[in-house]
Design goal:
Number of helices: 0
Shape: globular
Number of strands: 7
Distance between the termini: 17 Å
C-alpha cells in the first residue's frame, strides 16, 4: 500500500466512520486527499473492526488499510 495513506481511527456509532489522513469517511463516501506530490481521489468501500477497504482513482484493485496496533 501507499505509506502516505494512514488509517488513524474507526468509530462505530449510528454510521461507521473511518479516519484516513485526518478525513472522516463513511461507507460509499469519496474525498480528495492532498499528498506530496498531488492529490489522490479515494472512496471508502467497507469499514471493518480494524481495517477499511478503499478504492483509489486510476487503480484497478481496491486497497486495504489497517489500523496500526
Amino acid at each position: 500500500g501507499d505509506p502516505r495513506l494512514k488509517l488513524s481511527g474507526i468509530t462505530f456509532g449510528s454510521h461507521p466512520l473511518a479516519i484516513i489522513n485526518g478525513r472522516s469517511l463513511s461507507e460509499g463516501e469519496a474525498t480528495q486527499i492532498s499528498l506530496k506530490p498531488g492529490t489522490l481521489n479515494i472512496k471508502c468501500l467497507k469499514i471493518q473492526a480494524d481495517s477499511v477497504l478503499i478504492t483509489v482513482d486510476g487503480e484497478d484493485t481496491p486497497r486495504l488499510l489497517r489500523l496500526k496496533k
